[in-house]
Amino acid sequence: MIRPDSKFEKTCKVLLVEDHPMFREHLAQLIGRDLGLSICGEADNIRDAMRLIRETSPDIAIVDITLRGSSGIELVKDIKAHGLSVDVLVLSMHDEELYAERALRAGAKGYITKNEASTEVLKAIRCVMNGDVYASRQVTARLLERLARKRAPVEVAGIETLADRELEVFQMLGRGKSTREIALSLNLGESTVETYRARIKDKLQLKSAAELYLRAGQWVREHGA
Fold first, then answer.
1. Rounded distance, CA 9 to CA 12, Å?
2. pLDDT digits (tens, 9 = 90+) for 196-212
3. Calpha distance 219→225 (Å, rounded)
4. Which tens digits make up the pLDDT trace of 54-85?
5. Reduced to 3 states, what is the DSSP secondary structure of residue 25?
6. Among 62, 133, 165, 207, whose Cα sits 20 to 30 Å from the Cα of 116?
């Protein structure tokens, strides 16, 4: 356990940013059992999360990579851009190096999968609060393997060329969202979404909107994005 009488002079405040209520409750109960940790707030979207960060000044935020209306990676970027003093541990259903690298590059201090959360989240919090970066053995092994290969397989490499916002739009297309729905969800103009669509098609060398939706749908099905 992380105890108040250890190297930490006070109880560490944890903000939970997760859009699945049952899983958020599970995390809250798990973290609440540790004497050195306390939940200072819960949110399921970026706007509420940013408000709570300013109001409660958490030491660490546990952020789901898939949030209501946006991506947790965008929240990590917003935290960094506004100079807010809170470490971020990204939580995801994905164990792929693609998402882990993007999260860490955006400024997260750790990456943990939901499958590991029940047994590893306290260890991950301890690691981050000690000033280190946390990643599971599986994620670390895949990242190191990728560095050793120098490049990823052709299919993944194509997706890796997408910027974070482009990947977010790509995933929403894969879930069957229209341009208007994506624009409303991400608070963007429809013309901006169309620009993202055109960039995605160009980067993935797709010839039509039908090919784009097909590729995006396949990606979402295979990766649970």
1. 9
2. 899 999 988 888 888 88
3. 7
4. 999 999 999 998 887 778 888 999 998 899 99
5. helix
6. 165
Query: Last residue of some domain: 89, 116, 145?
Result: 145
User: Considering the domain boundaries, does residue 7 fall inside one?
Assistant: no
With CA atoms as reference, report the closest residue to 74 among 195, 140, 163, 199. Answer: 163
Number of separate helices (H) and strands (E) present in the chain: 11, 8
Domain that holds residue 81: 12-145
DSSP 8-state symbol, 93: S
- HSE of 124, CA atoms in CB hemisphere, 13 A: 29
What is the distance in angstroms between the CA of the first residue and the CA of the last residue of the chain?
33
Q: Which CATH number covers residue 193?
A: 1.10.10.10
Q: Is 152 within 8 Å of 160 (Cβ atoms)?
A: yes
